[in-house]
TrEMBL record, chain A:
Residues 96-134 are annotated as: Disordered. The keyword Membrane applies. One of its GO terms (cellular component) is plasma membrane. The lineage of its organism: Bacteria, Pseudomonadati, Pseudomonadota, Alphaproteobacteria, Sphingomonadales. This is histidine kinase. It comes from Sphingomonas jinjuensis.
From TrEMBL, chain B:
SMART domains: REC (SM00448), Trans_reg_C (SM00862). This is DNA-binding response OmpR family regulator. Signal peptide: none annotated. CDD domains: trans_reg_C.
């Protein structure tokens, strides 16, 4: 039983599972790349702020006094925009930007990606510091505390947090596009892979269909590892099936012998009594009909049976059965039909026997290839069949010939058997005036 | 005419034998392939009726063994196997005719007579010998255009002489084709039968060839 939530096709399932995996992988990759990008940007900013802090430090002397002239000369590039601030806080009080944020713990800097832990900067260097300006703007700052003879001096350089976000946002658009492209590429690769991987399954399906159609005896066992056991099982199944068909045929033949001999004994006892004798004849016809049906149920379209030997052997046999009838066989050497040898014997035997029974003295059997079919013509020089009756002759159960001696079944069983093989039977008038039967059978 | 009937069915075999004897044939019955093969190879028969589905050796095997041993007797296969492949196999094994069960006795007898006639080298069913004529199809004899009434033994002897008219038939050969295998054969019985026949068709037609056998002389 298949879980309901899974797609019904293997292709769908594989597509579903690997799409989810691809999406998750792309999301993780996106997050990691965005994080790394943020860290690079912050590191760049930190370097700039550290340089500013270093400049500020260079204006403080060993007594903690700020050299204002030097400071004024050096801080020219500090306040380049809103949020860019600086501050020196020492024993002489604080100087710096007016709206410097209150010292408050801001959000921490983006975490370093796992595995990329760097040793913490020595306490001597500038430390990160995040805070919020009075106008609510979030700031990122670097702070250095230097010790002087008169006490510690705190130097701080800050930048708006926005300068960190902007390059990330700008980089994220091409990043997402690239990831989407990657996703599309992976999906295409997946589809191609599914197609390639599932091709043997489709081929196996085609081969099984060919077996059912009778065009193949067994599937190719040269399969990928996963399919090889299945192919072997399928072949075993096909072999069992064939054995069962053979058994069915054998049982039919056994049934024939088992029933016909007592019927023959009964017929001898009843000879001369027309009523019971006709019942016996009816029993015989019924047995014969159903045995023929049983035989035709076990058709085998895979055969390639040469036509000439079959026709010659049958002609030899039928010459002996019908004394005085000349049977001419004109079949090209090498012509073969896709009919089981026994069924071909039935088809031709019934037709030629029928022709010989009605012939005045001559029967001719000829054949020619016609595209994918073989046309076999059996003609006699007998009285023929009126055009009006011809169609009826090939209907099941019809037998216009009531004086026959019980050999064969006439044309209806031939028509039925030929149709099972994808062939056909047509009746016409022979040049000699008798019946012309054209049997079309698939060529081998 | 002596026939070997090979039929394993206990109901059908005796019925066919009786029907053939009613038509004056001498009939030996074999109910298995081994007996059939042995009888066919050692006894003289004018024809054999052979069932294919035998308990030990298949009928086709029996037929092939006969042919391999050089036995040329005409063989009529009588079987329930109605497939054309079976018929072809039967003829290829050396059968001369093939009749399907169930069958009409008249047809079986007619086909047997035709087989024997053709084996004796006669294309036409009607044989003439002086005032005597024989319809090999119906088995009826006529003398000067009038039906001739014969007993089974008389018919067997005269039909043999007729089929091989103008040639000497060895006495032993004639005996073998007149009596069934298990019959008590009185050494004088053949002479008795020939004597009765001479009374019916005239004393001169059947010649005794001293030390050899008999000859049906048709004259000029």
């Amino acid at each position: 039983m298949m879980p309901r939530w899974l797609p019904r096709s293997l292709r769908g399932r594989m597509l579903l599972v690997s799409s989810i995996a691809t999406l998750v992988a792309l999301a993780i990759a996106g997050a990691v790349i965005a994080g790394l990008l943020g860290r690079f940007v912050i590191e760049g900013l930190d370097r700039r702020l550290d340089a500013e802090v270093a400049l500020l430090a260079s204006t403080v002397d060993t007594d903690g006094r700020v050299d204002r002239a030097r400071l004024a000369q050096r801080i020219g590039g500090f306040e380049v925009g809103r949020g860019w601030r600086w501050r020196i806080e020492g024993p002489d009080g604080a100087i710096g930007s007016n709206d410097f944020p209150r010292p408050a713990a801001g959000p921490p800097a983006p975490p370093a990606p796992p595995g990329a832990e760097r040793p913490a900067p020595p306490l001597a260097g500038p430390q990160p510091w995040d805070g919020e300006a009075d106008d609510g703007e979030r700031l990122h700052a670097r702070q250095l505390v230097i010790e002087t003879r008169r006490g510690s001096v705190t130097l701080t350089a800050a930048a708006p947090r926005g300068v960190v976000r902007r390059p990330i946002v700008e980089a994220l658009t091409p990043l997402l596009l690239a990831l989407a492209g990657l996703g599309a590429l992976l999906t295409i690769a997946l589809l191609v892979q599914l197609r390639v991987a599932l091709r043997p399954v489709r081929r196996l399906h085609d081969e099984v269909a060919a077996i059912r159609a009778g065009q193949l005896a067994r599937v190719d066992e040269d399969q990928p590892d996963e399919l090889r056991p299945l192919a072997a099982e399928l072949n075993a199944l096909a072999a069992d099936n064939e054995a069962a068909l053979a058994t069915a045929r054998g049982s039919a033949a056994n049934l024939a012998h088992a029933l016909k001999t007592p019927v023959a004994a009964l017929a001898l006892d009843l000879a001369g009594q027309s009523g019971p004798a006709s019942q016996v004849a009816r029993i015989d016809r019924t047995i014969r009909h159903h045995l023929a049906r049983a035989r035709t149920a076990a058709i085998n379209r895979r055969s390639a049976t040469p036509l000439l030997p079959a026709a010659s052997d049958l002609a030899d046999a039928i010459r002996r059965l019908h004394d005085g009838v000349a049977i001419a066989v004109a079949v090209p050497q090498g012509l073969a039909v896709a009919i089981d040898p026994q069924d071909l014997d039935e088809l031709l035997g019934n037709l030629v026997d029928n022709a010989a029974r009605h012939a005045a003295g001559r029967v001719s059997v000829s054949a020619r290839g016609e595209g994918r079919m073989v046309h076999i013509e059996v003609a006699d020089d007998g009285p023929g069949i009126p055009a009006a009756d011809r169609a009826r002759m090939t209907q099941p159960g019809t037998r216009l010939d009531q004086r026959g001696d019980g050999h064969g079944f006439g044309l209806s069983i031939v028509a039925e058997l030929a149709a099972l093989y994808g062939g056909a039977l047509t009746l016409g008038e022979a040049p000699e005036g008798g019946l012309l039967v054209t049997l079309m059978l698939p060529a081998a | 005419m002596r026939i070997l009937l090979v039929e394993d069915d206990r109901d059908l075999g005796p019925r066919i034998a009786r029907a053939l004897r009613d038509e004056h044939f001498a009939v030996d019955v074999a109910t298995n392939g081994v007996d059939a093969q042995h009888l066919g190879e050692t006894e003289q028969y004018d024809a054999a009726v052979l069932d294919l589905g035998l308990p030990d050796i298949d009928g086709i095997g029996v037929l092939k063994a006969w042919r391999a041993a050089g036995r040329e007797l005409p063989v009529l296969v009588l079987t329930a196997r109605d497939g054309w492949s079976d018929k072809v196999a039967g003829f290829k094994a050396g059968a001369d005719d093939y009749v399907l069960k169930p069958f009409r006795v008249e047809e079986l007898v007619m086909r047997l007579r035709a087989l024997v006639r053709r084996a004796a080298g006669h294309g036409q069913p009607r044989l003439e010998c002086g005032p005597l004529s024989f319809d090999a199809q119906t088995g009826a004899f006529e003398l000067d255009g009038l039906a001739l009434k014969l007993t089974a033994f008389e018919w067997r002897v005269l039909s043999q002489l007729m089929l091989r008219r103008n040639t000497v038939i060895e006495r032993l050969d004639l005996l073998e084709r007149v009596y069934e295998g298990d019959a008590d054969v009185d050494s004088n019985s053949l002479e008795v039968i020939v004597g009765r026949l001479r009374k019916k068709i005239g004393a001169t037609m059947i010649e005794t060839v001293r030390g050899r056998g008999y000859r049906l002389a048709c004259g000029g």
